[in-house]
Amino acid sequence: MKRLSMDDISNAPSLPEKEIEIDQWNASVLVTGLTKADTVEINELSEIEGVRDEVLFEKYLLLKGLKDPQLNDLEQVEEFYSKATPSIVDKVLVGIYRCMAWTKEDQASIASEFPE
User: Would you tell me how many other CB atoms lie within 10 Å of the CB of residue 82?
Assistant: First the structure.
C-alpha cells in the first residue's frame, strides 16, 4: 500500500450522495455525506454555553447535508420542519448519516435513534 500524499488528499473523490424517497410527498431529496471540517463546524455552531444543543445540531446537519433541495439558512430549515412530519425529517437525517460512510454498527445505532 502506498503512503497517502497531499496530492491524494487534494484529489480525493467527491463525498457520496444518496437519493432519499419521501413517499408521503411522492418526491425525493438528494443528501450527501459531510467532511470532518463540516462536522466540526456543525458541532461549534450548535454549542450553547459549552453544551451541544441536539435540535440545533440537527438543523445545521440538514443545512450541510441536504443538497437538493438546498436549504440556505435556518429559516428555511424551520419552514421544512413546519411542513414535514418527524418521520420525514428523520429519514433525511438517516440518509445523511449513511452517506458519511460510518461502520454498520454506527449506522444501526443511528437507525435506532431515528426510526424510519
Answer: 7
